[in-house]
């Protein structure tokens, strides 16, 4: 049966110099320790993600038409826009409502109201640079 070249080379290899062998052993040990640390860190991250996904409950938001104050009573209030303003769009999130309006001079403004506190909490002008 013919021999392969790799087998011939393996048989003819000389043993490593003791100092080179020591360096090789240190490198193998270093690699093993680092791979162990990396594996441990990866397991910690995976465990944290699993724990977080099981422990947190997603809050169920109330439907938009069912906004209530902490006392449980429905919210009723007036939102006052500047005279002549035309409402373009609205958006509601939690206890805040965002209203986009176009003023009489053509400028667009976003008003943000707090429904629980029944007050204006922000006004943002939309303008071109």
Automatic annotation (TrEMBL):
<keyword id="KW-0472">Membrane</keyword>
<keyword id="KW-1133">Transmembrane helix</keyword>
<keyword id="KW-0812">Transmembrane</keyword>
<feature type="transmembrane region" description="Helical">
    <location>
        <begin position="32"/>
        <end position="51"/>
    </location>
</feature>
<protein>
    <submittedName>
        <fullName>Fimbrial protein</fullName>
    </submittedName>
</protein>
